[in-house]
């Protein structure tokens, strides 16, 4: 093995000592847990140290300080690298937690988890996700700076840094996000690429031989290469240059050695995902001049050096607080607006212009109603920003007159599709292009950054492209609103590729994700209220085709949507014989079928069930009042997979759903041929009751 150990560093001894402190905390924690990834932290420790020690603006005593630099460890398998940095720089992460790495109820889980460990910005582990999250953070910073900063008051002014790996760069979500970031000229986004050329199973030569530098240059990134990952001054210089490059995101390719210092496992995939082993730990410590015992040794000189971050963080936050106080005196209205946004609150009276829709047998598509609602409430909600995967005209998600979020150097002649308002980072319409996965990952980053309430939109069938990011939004509890239109076979002529079948069941299976499929325009308005008041992510599932707007003077108030399920209409005469349960565009079929069944002396109740999760959170008493246990004849009606509906209809009930792909034909024909007609609903209901049809 080539002798390129840290003994050859030209930097001070405290640098050498501090870097090895990071390395051996990681090695010892992984070895004690007998589980984890020691190799990357061993190789990436020098660049992580330079970033955290010389550049990162943060306050360990207040991890949520708003104008801090954001740091994303996209290579989440190297979690001990981050935990080591957090402990050493003074975050509330005691050494005992480091010693409990990967153990139950410790604050040092196998991959970083937002909200679980102080200082962790986002949950990473699925490769490429952190890369996309960082792009969203940089977008949020650019937007808030453009909206709120004034001369002499750069209230929002920070960088987003990340460490990314070979695996991150291989994933498609990173390619999408990198393309978007380059287009948007996000100069405050800086990624250090740990180019160790080893993945879990082998060397990258087997699968990843493209020229990464040229690839990112083609995306519009500023690219630098550091040939020796132990050259601290070269890393420092590259970061300096990246910070001064205002019109391009930066990728710094740092050639490192996985398992650096290990006599037998350096540059081997054996160092990637397994402990070194007790003997190799001993040999590595001897090789790098580190005491073999005790484990988790932290030299006082190194700890004191790292802990300078505490005083520095306090000072930098205090300077910002002073600046913010001056800003509040000069621009009181802007300051109040910004502080509310930073706190994640909604302005008083934000829903004052929420529309109410009159009864209309023709009605409108819920996607159209959603667009009207969005544009009615947006002027009172300055934090509400977002866009679609190149589908604004179809998803009805353009914020009219509120500008386009774009880089400032795009020629006027190229500015097509403007929705009105300013062109630049202050615009509230985000154009994600045909990049569903990057859109969702960036939305997560925007929500994690704070100060904005982001939404994104695409056709429901393409939720498959962004499901991993949506799952992580639910895991982190991020306030992201997903708008999925064209929600069933009712979209018609576009055919099976665009007609969702299994998608409702798939999204409902994600824990902590409210999936709301409103049944008319007024339910859509309440669904938006629920989405904006929710602390976490929400998926709104909206129709392409028109659906009737119910007469709410005759039927129950749409406000009951907040309960998830409610009785829309009941037949007189006591306990119902039958319950019809429907969602979305099938609600009007249930209402019409009830009227026909009443004429046949059948007491039918209609229940709207737009959100299973909301309904399941209600008291047992309420749920039994909507679905009385003694009424076992129940028919669920939904143009999607029947999977999951048995929890509500039971063994004696029936489900009118779809278990095959759709077809290319006018929507009303496809629906009718699949049984979604008043006549067929009545026939299924009568069959449940043992009546002749």
Structure description:
- The chain is an alpha/beta fold.
- It has three domains: 13-313, Rossmann fold, CATH 3.40.50.970; 360-548, Rossmann fold, CATH 3.40.50; 562-688, Rossmann fold.
- It contains 25 helices and 19 strands.
- The strands form four sheets. It has a seven-stranded parallel sheet with strand order 8-9-7-10-11-13-12, sandwiched between helices. A five-stranded parallel sheet has the order 1-2-3-5-4, sandwiched between helices. Strands 15-17-16-18-19 form a five-stranded mixed sheet.
- Helix 1 (13-33) packs across helix 11 and helix 20 (587-599) crosses helix 25.
- The protein starts with 12 loop residues before the first helix and ends in a 5-residue tail after the last helix.
- 53% of the residues are buried.
Query: What's the CATH H-level superfamily name of the largest domain?
Result: Thiamin diphosphate (ThDP)-binding fold, Pyr/PP domains
CATH architectural type of the largest domain: 3-Layer(aba) Sandwich
Helical run tally: 25
Question: What is the helix content?
Answer: 25-40%
How many structural domains can be distinguished in the coordinates? 3
Specify Rg, calculated over alpha carbons.
28 Å
What is the number of E strands?
A: 19
Looking at the structure, what is the overall shape? elongated
CATH fold name of the largest domain: Rossmann fold
Secondary-structure class = alpha/beta
Q: Strands across the major sheet, in which order?
A: 8-9-7-10-11-13-12
Low-confidence stretches: 1-10
% residues in beta strands: 5-15%
CATH class of the largest domain: Alpha Beta
Mean pLDDT: 95
Largest sheet: 7 strands, parallel
Our measurement of the CA-to-CA distance between the termini, rounded to an integer number of angstroms, reads 83 Å
